[in-house]
Write a structure and sequence with these properties.
Elements lengths: L1 H25 L19 E2 L5 E5 L9 E7 L5 E8 L13 E2 L5 E5 L9 E8 L2 E9 L17 E2 L5 E5 L8 E7 L4 E8 L5
Antiparallel strand pairs: 1-2, 2-3, 3-4, 5-6, 6-7, 7-8, 9-10, 10-11, 11-12
Length: 200
């Protein structure tokens, strides 16, 4: 009797799974093209609380060195792309990492190149009734040898008390750093948490 019960269970399992396997084999991936954006997309998109999308292009923009864009959707489901900022090199270039919001709906991100020392920047976009205001809040490589890092390729993550954490190339041993950026008195302050290549 015991083998018979096992046989019945096994048969029922095959009957149930077979239609699932067949449907998966014939299923085709479905996607919809929302927009075509020039400049090269190397990172993901970020939603705001209203369902709008935000991202960066590594190239493109008015000066060919990158841009920040917003995608909004109308009632018919059609997406519109708006350029919020075009980098010109002095304020950064070639942004690669994704964007991140703080609690006040300000956007933050990094650029891998450009800025005051041509080693990348950290920037902020602040919304207002007139649009978005772009501000560079940190220029990498303020000191000779770049102990603060340079050329960040990834975006930021939120830390405590309004701070942000990130990674960058270069650094004290030229192998990269982990840094924290926190608001100070009238300016943002970068603190290197770890320099890769250091010995414990």
């Amino acid at each position: 009797m015991r083998p018979k019960r096992l046989y019945i269970v096994y048969t029922l399992t095959l009957v149930v799974l077979t239609p699932l396997l067949i449907s998966d084999a014939w299923a085709q991936p479905k996607y919809k093209l929302l927009a075509t954006i020039d400049g090269g997309l190397w990172s993901g998109l970020t939603f705001d609380s209203k369902g709008n999308l935000y991202g960066v292009t590594t190239g493109g923009g008015d000066h060919g060195v990158g841009s920040i864009f917003e995608m909004t959707r109308n009632g018919k489901g059609v997406w519109t792309v708006t350029t919020l900022h075009s980098f010109d090199g002095t304020d950064g270039s070639s942004p690669n990492g994704g964007l991140i919001f703080d609690g006040a709906e300000n956007l933050y991100g990094t650029s891998a190149d450009g800025g005051a020392y041509d080693s990348g920047t950290i920037f902020e976009l602040t919304p207002s009734s007139d649009g978005w205001t772009f501000t560079v809040i940190y220029n990498f490589c303020r000191e000779y040898g770049c102990p603060d890092g340079g050329g960040p390729l990834a975006g930021l993550v939120r830390g405590r008390s309004g701070s942000f954490l990130g990674t960058a190339r270069a650094g004290l041993y030229d192998l990269g750093v982990v840094f924290e950026l926190r608001p100070g008195s009238g300016a943002w302050v970068e603190n290197v948490l770890y320099s890769f290549g250091s010995r414990p």
